[in-house]
Write a structure and sequence with these properties.
The chain has four helices and two strands, in the order ββαααα. Helix 1 packs across helix 2. The radius of gyration is 13 Å and the shape is globular.
């Protein structure tokens, strides 16, 4: 499995599997599938194992990119 390329808060947009996208969002595959299920019509069916680039862009648009929020003590 190829690792998703995340650098400086940005992700390289390329075809990704459910497992790869779940790792970007630091959740299990089951949780990730639940997150994207409301957008299934917009995302469309995967062709084989991977979401294509257009589908990945829709997923990122809907979910946003994960970020870390610093806590002030």
């Amino acid at each position: 499995m190829a690792r998703p390329i995340v650098k400086d808060g940005k992700i390289k947009v390329m075809p990704y599997s459910i497992a790869e996208l779940a790792s970007v969002y630091d959740v299990c595959e089951r949780t990730f599938k639940k997150w994207i299920s409301p957008f299934a019509d917009e995302i469309g069916e995967k062709q084989g194992r991977y979401f294509n680039i257009s589908q990945v862009m829709i997923i990122i648009e809907k979910l946003g990119l994960p970020t870390e929020i610093p806590l002030d003590n």
